[in-house]
Write a structure and sequence with these properties.
Shape: globular
Number of domains: 1
CATH architecture: 6 Propeller
Largest sheet: 5 strands, mixed
Number of helices: 0
Helix content: under 10%
CATH superfamily: TolB, C-terminal domain
CATH class: Mainly Beta
Order of helices and strands: EEEEEEEEEEEEEEEEEEEEEEEEEEE
Strand content: over 45%
């Protein structure tokens, strides 16, 4: 199973079938200047006995959806609630389950490797533990259900020859691609229906974006060569990751201002490894941030910051 890299790449798989709608969207640009820095209080969060912990989203109740690894390509999901880890694997996805989204009713979305079919569907896990697959029509075989809001609307991406963004609501899939992009990925959705994600332009550069009220605004961290937008809360605060001078950093974008986020002592070895440096994946209604960082020994940790 592949761990999600927020800077998208294209792969090829099999094709499934279904119903689809296409969103009509317009594209705008937003020029941002410099980034600021501010003091944050960081807390490392590691699943016991593992050398790789990934934190993806956090809900208004402080529950965190994440994953941990125990060997090559062995990934288990967990919920962190009140300091307690609860692990789970999707049926047929034992050892290959990666949660990536959570809403305030503890519905969890993500992706898993189906050992029966060899495909990697998205999933929705209900609080009672029941699971349903999330797979768009004409799927390329690898689906990520990355974000879910309180109405149950899911934002994600499906990867085949290219990456396509999709929204799943009331049983219907809507393909949501940035006009002119070669790849589009949706990562987060708030309760107002605002969506954040990333797209790749024809030159191969990755940009973050916000889709709100039918319009798309590009988000580029100042001085970066790549930017993605991972999550958005109802206050419109956006978090994500960026590459500047070949080093990954997290960021917060709020009221038109970027704040760079780096876990103290995180590796600055460069952007080659999937999760080197600092990556920010989620932000709660109250502004608590979660993500991952790689230390100088190459160990990947989860963290929260406020």
């Amino acid at each position: 199973m592949r761990k999600r890299d927020p800077f998208p790449v294209a792969v090829s798989f099999l094709v499934l079938a279904g119903l689809v709608a296409v969103a009509s969207i317009s594209l705008a640009s937003c020029n941002q200047g410099s980034a600021t820095r501010r003091s944050l209080s960081f807390t490392t969060i590691d699943f016991p006995g593992t050398t790789e912990t990934l934190l993806f989203k956090i809900n208004a109740n402080g529950e965190i959806a994440g994953a941990y690894t125990v060997g090559p390509n062995v990934v288990h999901g967990f919920l962190l609630q009140g300091g307690t880890f609860t692990t789970f694997d999707v049926p047929n996805g034992v050892g290959a389950t990666q949660p990536e989204g959570i809403n305030d009713t503890s519905e969890v979305t993500g992706t898993y490797y189906d050992a029966t079919t060899g495909l990697e569907p998205g999933f929705l896990r209900h609080p009672d533990g029941s699971v349903v697959d999330i797979v768009p029509p004409n799927s390329g075989g690898y689906t990520e259900a990355n974000g879910i809001n309180n109405s149950g609307t899911i934002a994600g991406r499906d990867i085949g020859a290219v990456s396509e963004g999709f929204v799943f609501s009331d049983g219907n899939y809507t393909i949501t691609d940035v006009p002119g992009a070669t790849n589009t990925s949706l990562f987060g959705i708030n309760n107002l229906g605002d969506i954040v994600g990333s797209y790749v332009d024809t030159s191969g550069t990755t940009h973050g974006f916000l889709k709100s009220n039918g319009s798309i605004t590009t988000i580029d961290f100042p001085g970066s060569t790549s930017t993605n937008a991972q999550d958005i809360n109802d206050s419109g605060e956006i978090v994500g990751s960026t590459v500047v001078a070949n080093v990954r950093h997290g960021y917060l974008f709020s009221s038109g201002t970027f704040t760079q986020i780096d876990y103290p002592g995180a590796s600055t070895a460069g952007s080659g490894a999937p999760l080197s440096g600092t990556d920010v994946h989620g932000i709660s209604a109250s502004g608590v941030i979660v993500g991952t960082y790689t230390d100088t020994a190459g160990v990947i940790h989860g963290f929260s910051a406020k």
